């Protein structure tokens, strides 16, 4: 990602996502951002216009760019928000080398040293919600362990134990009917499943580098995505 406005946009999204600027509060001014990034006014103005277009902020005369609440902007930063009472158990953390086939699937480079993580998420009552596999670059996640993952999860580690800043994720959603091999791979043979929703995506940092490739397999009854479709 080499466009200046995208870097500013991702920084502003980071401030909103991390609740550093709350709904009803004002984002840093254009002059402050010009000083911070050393950019001209144009890319900063484009970044703010994009936020306005997405209804994430609104321009208020005499105040600046104010963050909207989620009811207004329909903004969801993570599917984790859909399952606040769930429990994630990380069952696997192993090293592997990225080959050509894995590179094509994940976007990582051939010969990258990767870490493979498996996770199973269940409701408070113990019912399976999803299971997932993640691939990350080993050199960006030093001191990561199963104990650390099971204590707070991967995103908490990224946000609190590294200097990485998550920007956004790109997702592809599909339905799987032939799911036995996936259950066996995660040692979930006995689970009652009628099909699986695959949420396959890549998580990027503010510079456009892939931080994580993830495949999450949801039970369909737990997968509900409400959204607003805007007409232009």
Automatic annotation (TrEMBL):
Q: Which Gene3D superfamilies match?
A: Chorismate lyase-like, Winged helix-like DNA-binding domain superfamily/Winged helix DNA-binding domain
Domain HTH gntR-type, which positions?
2-70
Q: Does the keyword Lipid biosynthesis apply?
A: no
What are the protein's GO molecular function terms? DNA binding; DNA-binding transcription factor activity
Entry-linked SUPFAM superfamilies? Chorismate lyase-like, Winged helix' DNA-binding domain
The family database entries (Pfam families) matched by this protein are listed as: GntR, UTRA
Supply the source organism's classification: Bacteria, Bacillati, Mycoplasmatota, Mollicutes, Entomoplasmatales
**Superkingdom of the source species:** Bacteria
Name the record gives this protein = GntR family transcriptional regulator
Q: Which organism is it from?
A: Spiroplasma monobiae MQ-1
InterPro entries annotated for this entry? Chorismate_lyase_/UTRA_dom_sf (IPR028978), Tscrpt_reg_HTH_GntR (IPR000524), UTRA (IPR011663), WH-like_DNA-bd_sf (IPR036388), WH_DNA-bd_sf (IPR036390)
Q: Which keywords does this Swiss-Prot/TrEMBL entry list? A: DNA-binding, Transcription, Transcription regulation
């Amino acid at each position: 990602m080499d466009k200046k406005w995208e870097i500013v946009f991702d920084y502003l999204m980071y401030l909103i996502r991390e609740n550093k600027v709350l709904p009803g509060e004002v984002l840093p001014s254009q002059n402050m951002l010009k000083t911070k990034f050393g950019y001209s006014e144009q890319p900063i103005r484009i970044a703010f216009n994009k936020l306005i277009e997405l209804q994430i902020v609104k321009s208020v005369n005499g105040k600046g760019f104010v963050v909207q609440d989620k009811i207004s902007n329909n903004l969801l930063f993570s599917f984790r928000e859909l399952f606040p009472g769930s429990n994630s158990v990380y069952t696997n953390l192993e090293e592997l080398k990225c080959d050509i086939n894995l590179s094509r699937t994940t976007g990582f480079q051939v010969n990258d040293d990767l870490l493979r993580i498996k996770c199973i998420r269940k409701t408070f009552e113990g019912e399976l919600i999803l299971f997932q596999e993640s691939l990350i670059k080993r050199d960006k996640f030093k001191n990561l362990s199963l104990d650390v993952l099971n204590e707070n999860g991967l995103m908490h580690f990224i946000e609190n134990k590294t200097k990485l800043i998550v920007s956004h994720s790109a997702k592809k959603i599909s339905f799987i009917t032939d799911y036995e091999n996936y259950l066996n791979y995660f040692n979930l043979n006995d689970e009652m499943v009628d099909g699986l929703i695959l949420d396959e995506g890549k998580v990027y940092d503010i510079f456009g580098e892939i931080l994580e490739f993830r495949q999450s397999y949801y039970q369909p009854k737990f997968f509900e995505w409400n959204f607003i479709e805007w007409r232009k």
